[in-house]
Backbone:
């Protein structure tokens, strides 16, 4: 397993990077005994997180935890966040060629016609944030969110773009965003995973790679919880076996693993020991966590949540319950946003699914005193074109949608040190390109890590002779987002 280096510390007195194996050997403490003692002592925080050599972020953290809302398939920013009167006025007209030069599209070709939004827009809150009629509930918390209107990515198709957003690279093998965060910050609750994933609908094109740990130790990968049925598969004891039976089995397995760990020193064996212990503790902690019937009728109604169902609303409420109990990163993936056709009907239906729960989540976090140090992120892998797509057999565009668009789209952030009520960047009159303050995916990730207390250039992991990081070799903090 490669050695990791974390060069954290004050800017005036930064410590030299510490080689983890060298530290453990020089301390006279075997890696296996260290890992087991951490488990037995029930410690928390980055220092108790196996494999971290420092517990001090470089900056004062504004956020301690993250709730990431990813809309699989990419919603149309032009029908949710970006009001373009000129695009509406010229709806159906042929697009000027100057807007199409050197531009890539995933599917559409030939004659390109402009597509104005069929939806109304208005301003919300004291800040005047502009939102479409599809997001009335989000409008009630408009002063709490910061909208980036000029997001840019480098990938034009779903799976690579999803990977790029979450790992900084368009192909598999790199650690996910949540893995980097838990690698740097460790866990807050010894009875629950530090990184949990919830789905409403099918997986994205990139599949489980979106929450994989890549070359980081595997204990940093995300753990998928199911909203209905058994929350984690095979967590419960087999029929006829008691908790005491399971405890004896785990103790025996851990003794064997410890012998092997002491012999060869593979950190993945320490991961195996910790996961057995975590699974045993989760048998008690997880059922209570996932039981939404404990919530008041008023809370359930505010989210539109219904116990026993698999929905985005339920997952938003579960996310609040998780961060309240110390889960470091919760990612919610909501599917079916790929509207190449039928946008006029499909998009309002999907927006209705998420609008009320998102607003309720922000209000609930504020009411419980969690908003100031919980960062909420909403977005997708890319946006949608200002061009009409969806031609029937007669050559008529009777049920149009929009194609993929990587050059300018919208994401928003709230809580955790974010300056609410702000709007970052501006696009041209059709929404094709950023004309003011473009924000690259690497810039977004650099900013999120900054809010969590890290210099994105120094949160690194050495693998195959190279220092890797979430932002690759790019990224600048978007200072306008910071409160």
Residues:
């Amino acid at each position: 397993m490669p050695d990791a280096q974390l060069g954290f510390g004050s800017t005036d007195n930064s410590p030299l990077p510490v080689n983890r194996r060298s530290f453990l050997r020089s301390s006279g403490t075997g890696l296996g005994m260290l890992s087991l003692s951490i488990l037995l002592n029930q410690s928390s925080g980055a220092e108790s997180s196996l494999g971290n050599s420092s517990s001090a972020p470089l900056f004062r953290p504004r956020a301690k935890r993250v709730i990431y809302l990813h809309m699989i398939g990419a919603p149309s920013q032009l029908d949710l966040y970006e009001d373009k009167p000129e695009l509406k006025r010229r709806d159906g007209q042929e697009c000027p060629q100057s807007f199409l030069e050197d531009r890539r599209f995933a599917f559409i070709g030939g004659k390109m016609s402009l597509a104005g939004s069929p939806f109304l827009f208005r301003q919300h809150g004291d800040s005047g944030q502009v939102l479409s009629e599809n997001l009335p509930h989000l409008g009630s918390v408009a002063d709490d969110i910061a909208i980036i209107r000029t997001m840019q990515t480098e990938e034009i198709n779903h799976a690579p773009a999803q990977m790029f957003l979450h790992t900084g690279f368009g192909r598999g093998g790199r650690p996910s965003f949540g893995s980097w965060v838990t690698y740097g910050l460790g866990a807050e609750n010894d009875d629950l995973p530090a990184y949990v994933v919830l789905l409403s609908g099918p997986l994205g094109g990139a599949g489980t790679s979106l929450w994989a740990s890549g070359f980081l130790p595997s204990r940093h990968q995300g753990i998928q919880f199911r909203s209905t049925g058994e929350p984690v598969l095979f967590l419960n004891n087999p029929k006829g076996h008691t908790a005491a039976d399971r405890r004896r089995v785990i103790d025996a397995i851990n003794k064997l693993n410890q012998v092997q760990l002491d012999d060869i020193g593979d950190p993945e064996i320490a991961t195996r020991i910790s996961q057995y212990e975590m699974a045993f503790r989760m048998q008690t902690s997880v059922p209570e966590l996932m039981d939404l019937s404990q919530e008041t009728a008023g809370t359930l109604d505010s989210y539109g949540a219904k116990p026993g169902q698999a929905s985005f609303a339920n997952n938003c409420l579960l996310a609040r319950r998780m961060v309240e109990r110390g889960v470091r990163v919760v990612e919610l993936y909501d599917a079916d946003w790929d509207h190449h056709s039928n946008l006029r009907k499909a998009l309002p239906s999907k927006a209705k699914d998420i609008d009320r729960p998102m607003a309720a989540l922000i209000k609930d976090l504020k009411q419980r005193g969690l908003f100031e140090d919980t960062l909420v992120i909403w977005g997708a892998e890319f946006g949608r074109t200002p061009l009409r797509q969806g031609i029937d057999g007669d050559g008529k565009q009777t049920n149009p949608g929009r194609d993929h668009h990587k050059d300018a789209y919208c994401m928003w952030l709230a809580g955790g040190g974010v300056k609410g009520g702000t709007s970052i960047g501006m696009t041209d009159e059709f929404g094709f390109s950023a004309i003011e303050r473009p924000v690259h995916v690497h810039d977004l990730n650099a900013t999120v890590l900054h809010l969590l207390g890290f210099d994105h250039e120094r949160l690194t992991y050495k693998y195959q002779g190279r220092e890797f990081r979430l932002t690759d070799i790019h990224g600048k903090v978007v200072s306008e987002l910071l409160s």
About this structure: The radius of gyration is 23 Å. The first helix runs from residue 20 to 26.
